[in-house]
């Protein structure tokens, strides 16, 4: 049952137009299809169909994805296809300590925060104070502000040591921050580096290997969406061709051999 | 620090060969490269390099993926690329009640169990009792047995109503189980149907739509893995071409229009 | 050396804007960047750089692709990625007799015409007379009109028998035309059916198999284009997600077994 | 009607096993399923079904692809998906002069030779004399030997100037041969460089741009093959993940600006 304080996704019957809103006392959601008195939602069930005036709509319990897509963005955000793969491959779980640089819009900050649960912690570095302020608002809006420590500055100046279960590096020039990032990782901790260009991947692999990182993997995730008419089933005409390469690795000690042998 | 009862992934220095093992008192891990006295690992740190006799190896804290890949399989298992996208799109979170049919090897059972946390619950249906027994062992081994209720039988005979935040349907003939699956979902609950063939997708879309499911989406996830030599950077020569289509939807009430309009 | 009657592609120095034009006596090409007196091109070499007034441009000898993309379209045209694969898989070569239905814009008509050479022949069916008239102009413009026989009407009413080395079927409802298409093929002749939807593929496979067609293959061609900055190398952000499935087969006699065995 | 001298593809009824053979007087094709007296094929029609003793088989007129796949290989050969795209994008047509380095197995030599027709010409460089001898046999076997000039040596030592309509560069280190290759091209001629690794692509783009090459394009072609059971339609489980990147460009004179502007 919907209560004050809940977030609700209002999905129009066309299944395209969406509004993300908190159910606040006296709140009004203005849409092209009529105004919605938010108080009227209290007591209704998620899944119900309501009328906005000119159109019907569904009351949907917003997912994490719905939440982050409702945020005001200051930067390019990580796509769901990549977000999902990062969460699983970094193996983020309740109780984990996750470091992140940079905070950007606060999307991954929020996603990690939910994943680490109440017993976990996210420490997020961002050198641009304007981004940081907006990100704090975003994370607060999604309800995870108490799990996050925001730090204004470069990760490279961070002094904490060996405390991260996972490190997520998403900055314009990852190579400069790799050494500090690795230092912060616990033994066997996992890193993910966002590399939009191949050149960044090549440089990142080289540095990670020189730092003793093992099990280096580079992935590219492609998600194809299909039209849902079962009589004329086929993929969408256009798709996302590229977002980023994902570079992963695990911190280990005493690595002897730095290059994988490969037949010429 | 590694303790008795921990699971450890022993990753050889070739970064290919892996052994997944529990640190048991008096345990011995037999490998082609020497026997490992498991007691000797107690007190070591994850990330350390050890010697197996003929080869060095790393002590890695196993991820969920490492865990499920170490299980004895009775069925085809969901690939990580799909697993990640399912978890995020179904929006599984701490406290959720997740239904699943069928249990199969218990891989997704385990993955969901970790994700719902201690306050959540997974109810898993499997009609083949031999699969169910093996799956129970697998889920126990990964430490999540207390969060799971196993049910021997068809989901279609299930009598519980409106209690699932999410439903994961992975059975040979999904169409026969869709109506019950939807009934079990709470309003605004999310379903994912595994459909290896297009024919199953077409049938599933039709049934979901007739049952009033909204926001139906069909996705295909492709993951490309790259060779990690930065001097000769390129994708692997072979890749997985197909695992399954993923069909998602949200339960809602009172849907009026059953077919999305599409230009001819 | 450029002569009267040649086609020229004028490619602006931005390498994006293109003009396709015939070098006609007294002709003028009007562009946003100045007017080009076509006579002034006579005697110049392909590859030369000229000035249009406000911008420089290159004189390029147009490729087949440049030619067909310069045509006025009455229908969706086949993409180069698919066109190339069709030409090779149908094994079109000098001297071949190629049947086609429908003509559409005349793009594949032109492509096949060039490929069969002076000793070959293309017979193209189109039931819409408005399409046919425009297609004739297009094929004439590209210089292949003498190799093509245009037929106004449905391929299903065609009376010629066993004369095609290859058949290219690109009509809205291919299933109705498959039997005639196969009849027209010589023994060992090859067919390609354009099927934008999976449903058409499924139906087409069934009919082809019942008609004794062997070596049935279904392909989907994906072409990824990369940004060409070597310092920031990466794929384009957006790509074509789907054009069509391509179904191929070979005509043979006396087929006994109609369905490939497949493990369940 | 099949005659002496024809090549025939014997395709077993399982539609998997293939034999490529010339119909020679007194020839015998030995197979696991019986011996085939080649004289017995004379007078039969392509497309007919014959009996090999233990199995039936079809007589198929071999395509270019069938031909090149029957060759003895000394090197990795270009895949059909790439071959098709190269032929179309290089715009090879009757009468063209095509240069190639290196010859390798002679596959592209043969493909280009068929495409340029009787009035065209292929000049193929190969520094390894053992490859060259085998390639000559291959090209002769496919019937195109008279259209090809084979040169033993490096393309970089070539002295011919400005005579190629198209250049195909497929050597282990393309960067060393790019300048000569471009010199050989006519104005507005087209080049294709085979680059299996990204590093080669990056280097190739830089050199091509410094040499004034315009319209540089980098493509990656992915071909997905589907299982052809219409009741269980889906892609093959495994696919080719990577063969090569294809770099294309056009020779032009007097290029002023060497780098495409790109927003940061």
Description:
- Chain A is an alpha/beta fold and 264 residues long.
- Chain A folds into 2 domains: 7-62, Vcp-like ATPase, Chain A, domain 2 (Roll), CATH 3.10.330; 67-250, Rossmann fold.
- Chain A is built from 6 helices and 15 strands.
- Chain A has helices at residues 64-69, 80-89, 107-116, 129-141, 178-184, 198-210, and strands at residues 7-12, 18-22, 28-31, 34-37, 49-51, 56-60, 97-101, 121-126, 148-152, 164-169, 185-195, 214-227, 234-235, 238-240, 245-250.
- In chain A, the strands form 3 sheets. An 8-stranded mixed beta sheet of chain A has the order 9-8-7-10-11-15-12-13, with helices on both faces.
- In chain A, helix 4 links the parallel strand 8 and strand 9 (148-152).
- Chains in contact: A-B, A-C, A-D, B-C, B-D, C-D.
- At the A-B interface, strand 6, helix 2, strand 11, helix 6 and strand 12 of A face strand 6, helix 2, strand 11, helix 6 and strand 12 of B.
Q: Could you list some keywords that capture this structure?
A:
homotetramer, 264 residues, alpha/beta, Vcp-like ATPase, Chain A, domain 2, Rossmann fold, 4-stranded antiparallel β-sheet
Could you outline the blueprint of secondary structure elements for this entry?
The structure is a homotetramer of 264-residue chains.
Chain A: E1 7-12, E2 18-22, E3 28-31, E4 34-37, E5 49-51, E6 56-60, H1 64-69, H2 80-89, E7 97-101, H3 107-116, E8 121-126, H4 129-141, E9 148-152, E10 164-169, H5 178-184, E11 185-195, H6 198-210, E12 214-227, E13 234-235, E14 238-240, E15 245-250
Parallel strand pairs in A: 7-8, 7-10, 8-9, 10-11
Antiparallel strand pairs in A: 1-2, 1-6, 3-4, 5-6, 11-15, 12-13, 12-15
């Amino acid at each position: 049952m919907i209560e004050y304080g809940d977030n609700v996704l209002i999905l129009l019957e066309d299944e395209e137009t969406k509004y993300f809103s908190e159910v606040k006392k006296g709140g009004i959601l203005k849409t092209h299809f009529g105004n919605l008195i938010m108080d009227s939602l209290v007591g209704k069930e998620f899944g119900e169909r309501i009328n906005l005036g000119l159109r019907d709509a569904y009351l949907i319990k917003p997912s994490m994805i719905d939440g982050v897509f409702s945020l005001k963005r200051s930067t390019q955000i990580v796509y769901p296809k990549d977000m999902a793969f990062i969460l699983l491959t970094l193996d983020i779980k309740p109780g984990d300590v996750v470091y992140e640089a940079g905070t950007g819009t606060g999307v991954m900050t929020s996603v990690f925060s939910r994943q680490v649960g109440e017993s976990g912690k996210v420490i997020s570095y961002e050198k641009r104070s304007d981004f940081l302020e907006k990100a704090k608002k975003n994370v607060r809006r999604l309800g995870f502000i108490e799990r996050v420590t925001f730090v204004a500055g470069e990760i490279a100046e961070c002094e904490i040591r060996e405390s991260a279960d996972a490190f997520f590096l998403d900055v314009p020039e990852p190579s400069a921050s790799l050494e500090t990032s690795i230092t912060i990782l616990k033994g066997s901790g996992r890193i993910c580096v966002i590399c939009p260009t191949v050149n960044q991947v090549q440089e990142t692999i080289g540095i990670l290997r020189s730092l003793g990182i093992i099990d280096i993997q580079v992935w590219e995730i492609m998600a194809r969406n299909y039209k849902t008419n079962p009589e004329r089933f086929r993929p969408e005409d256009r798709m996302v061709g590229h977002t980023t390469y994902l570079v992963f690795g695990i911190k280990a000690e005493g690595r002897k051999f730095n290059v994988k042998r490969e037949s010429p």
